[in-house]
Amino acid sequence: MLGESSFTLLREIGTLPLAQGEDVRVTIEAYRGYRYVSVRRYITTDGFSGATRDGLTLTPEIVRALAPRLAALAADPREVPDGEIGKFAKRQGMCVVVSIGSFKGRRGLVLRQWQADCGWTKKGIWLPLEKLGEIKALFCKAKEALDEQPEDDF
């Protein structure tokens, strides 16, 4: 039996393939009785296979607010302007900032955690903007999964 302080996988939403041996997985998990949507990068190498530190968890409320904002973005990533999409409260003094920006010459969707007392945390993930259609679909699917299942039934 998993301890109370561990994440428990409730549902796999989907995978966003990245480079060879690398992908981002979107799942619904429970932690200490609360449901979260996890967006995390996984790698497979000769010496390691599993989750990396790149990623974060989003409350159901964040996913329900973010999915329609992502869906409203232009279908062509070249038509999506750089800038903040939204700032979403995670808990008292902490939020998730979602934006479009560039990193190492490539544009992407950035989900990053901000803490009021110390600024940016290490928790976050960058998703390549050329996969915007797949990203939109994953967030839409996560929102639908959250909406179709009452909290107690997961």
Give an overview in words.
By secondary structure, the chain is of the alpha+beta class. It has one domain: Secreted effector protein pipB2 fold (2-Layer Sandwich), CATH 3.30.2450. The protein is built from two helices and eight strands, in the order ββββαββββα. The chain has helices spanning 60-71, 132-148; strands at 8-17, 22-31, 34-44, 49-58, 83-91, 94-103, 106-115, 119-128. The strands form two sheets. The chain has a four-stranded antiparallel beta sheet with strand order 1-2-3-4. Strands 5-6-7-8 form a four-stranded antiparallel beta sheet, covered by helices on one side. A hairpin with a 4-residue loop joins strand 3 (34-44) and strand 4. The longest helix has 17 residues, at 132-148. It is globular, with a radius of gyration of 15 Å.
Notable characteristics:
single chain; 154 residues; alpha+beta; Secreted effector protein pipB2 fold; four-stranded antiparallel sheet; 2 helices; 8 strands; 19% helix
Average pLDDT confidence is 91
CATH topology: Secreted effector protein pipB2 fold
Major sheet strand order: 1-2-3-4
- Tell me the fraction of residues in β-strands, as a range: over 45%
Low-confidence stretches: none
Question: What would you call the structural class?
Answer: alpha+beta
What is the second-level CATH architecture? 2-Layer Sandwich
Number of strands: 8
Q: How many domains make up the coordinates?
A: 1
Task: Quickly name the level 1 CATH class.
Answer: Alpha Beta
Quote the distance from N terminus to C terminus: 17 Å
Main sheet attributes: strand count, strand direction, barrel closure? 4 strands, antiparallel
Gyration radius over CA: 15 Å
In one word, what is the shape?
Answer: globular
Tally of separate helices: 2
Helical fraction: 10-25%
Order of helices and strands: EEEEHEEEEH
